[in-house]
Design goal:
The complex is a heterodimer. Chain A is mainly alpha-helical. Chain A has a domain at about 1-100. Chain A has helices at about 5-10, 15-35, 40-55, 65, 75-95, 105-110, 115-135, 140-145, 150-170. In chain A, α3 packs across α5 and α8 (about 140-145) packs antiparallel against α9 (about 150-170). The longest helix of chain A has 22 residues, at about 150-170. The termini of chain A are far apart. Chain B has one domain. In chain B, α2 crosses α7, α4 runs antiparallel to α10 (about 165-185) and α7 packs antiparallel against α8. Classes of the chains: A mainly alpha, B mainly alpha. At the A-B interface, α2, α3, α4, α5 and α6 of A face α1, α2, α3, α4 and β1 of B.
Chain lengths: ~180, ~190
Amino acid sequence: MIEVTDVLTDPRWSPYLVGLGIGVLSWLTFLISDHPLGVSTAFARSAGMVERGVRGPEVAKKPYYQEHPPTIDWEWLLVVGLFLGALVAAWLSGTVRWVWVPDMWAERFGAGAGGRLAVALVGGICVGFGARWGRGCTSGHGISGVLQLVLGSWLAAFCFFAGGVVVAFILYGAS
Amino acid sequence: MLDRIRGSRRSQPVLGLVFGFCFGFLLQKGGVCRYEIIMRQLLLEDFTVLKIIFTAVITGMVGVYAMRGAGWVTLHKKPGSLGASVPGPLVFGVGFGLLGYCPGTAVGAVGHGALDALVGGVVGIMTGAGLYAAAFPWLRERILDVGDFGDRTLIDVLRPRSSWMVIAPTVTIIIAGLWVLERSGL
């Protein structure tokens, strides 16, 4: 017999179960919070909050921050919750481990942290810039926009993966 | 009742946290906060990421459109244009391949201790978003509105008598695609 505790400590759930769960979660956010799942706007708000802390209140007058004010909102708290949920899930499975360099990277490019962090940082900057340019990320477009059948979101989601596939094959293709 | 909860300044922050907690829990249990799983998806070797996305999409689509039909929810569509929805997401995609996480899964990866997701991911994505705020007036002036097509959906374009005449075939095609993936052992 399967116990509830076994399910909670299982490190990997079926992707279909997880997808179903995220789909149902999106019903609830639409219904109860009148909000779709999305993550990347919170990063723009955080960037604005940091910039305001460093450079002062006039930062909020930037046109982009007029449209997306640097404040803590529902989506920002969603991202805080996302971190906590992922932490608890990993903790229950016993898979929390401080790691600077993922194994797959280390096998191909060596275990030095400097190279991995430099590439990850450049990648992160592109992700942040591109997500705001494209008005959403894998959650906002890839899940929420695609499920609403929005054409721009389907196009954006395709381009996320097209760009990612090209880079992945450049990095790991011949291995 | 619904309007009262939706407008509640006390409940909504808590609900945001709770929904986020569930989202992060599911992403972590699905394995998609792992660098290896995301990169092997981009290398077309492991389709966990797309299986999760497409299952979430068909589940969400049926529920959200059913609730919309009942008048319970409104859609939240982002407008698109060739100048925004192609180059931005391609830059995102390049970053996705280099970083090995997207914004949500980077935050989730920090939850299992991935420090490259913290330094490269969280710090990098915030930096990129800040740089975008600086570039925004220039891009808005020249690029963002090129080839604007608004927030049109597939239903708006095909104009069926009922939305379900678009949703049902879309769901069927996605399920068929997932079935083919499973059959091919991917």
